[in-house]
Amino acid sequence: MNTDDWLTDTRTSYDTVAVSYADQVRDAIGGLQYLRTALALFAESVRAAGGGPVADIGCGPGHVTAYLHELGVDAFGVDLSPGMIDVARRDHPHLRFEVRSMTDLDLPAGSVAGLLAWQSLIHIPDDDMPTVLEHFHTALRPGGPLQLLFHVGQESQLKTQGYGGHPMKVHVHRRQPGEVAAWLHDAGFEIEAQMLLNPDGEAAQAILFARRRPHR
Description:
216 residues, Rossmann fold, seven-stranded mixed β-sheet
């Protein structure tokens, strides 16, 4: 699959669903204790590492970025979709949001104290994962925490509609935590913990807590 093709399809899809997606997820974190706990642990890890700016990569409409801000984290959001960023800026005008692709992140080296990517790596093909994680490694300060949330499984599916029935064209890649952990290790990260959500259900998810190694 050509990188430009899947990026264009993903951008267009999320531009199309931005408003309806935001309406569906706006209050989602408040009702999910384990996700709130994971974000609280991430925020504490950032503070313990000295604090500083935190990048929410694939931030969508900015609800996770805003929750981190409420936890006292200096968070900003990055997303491929200009439509999503427009909604994020509308709903959270006091926070910073930027249009960027994680395949070409271009954040200055060591510029963020922590980095979070929730349900955004699910659209990245396997061949592009090493490049994305290399960008994460470059942007993070040595010792900085990284948290990933993703769907668990072994298959990839084409999603053709969603969030109110709007047309979409995005591939959703489900992965095993061990596979993602191996990619992280190769990219210069240490895995500190793993959390499985709904492991016996059809919508299993995993959260990996990692940290950039001081030295590669």
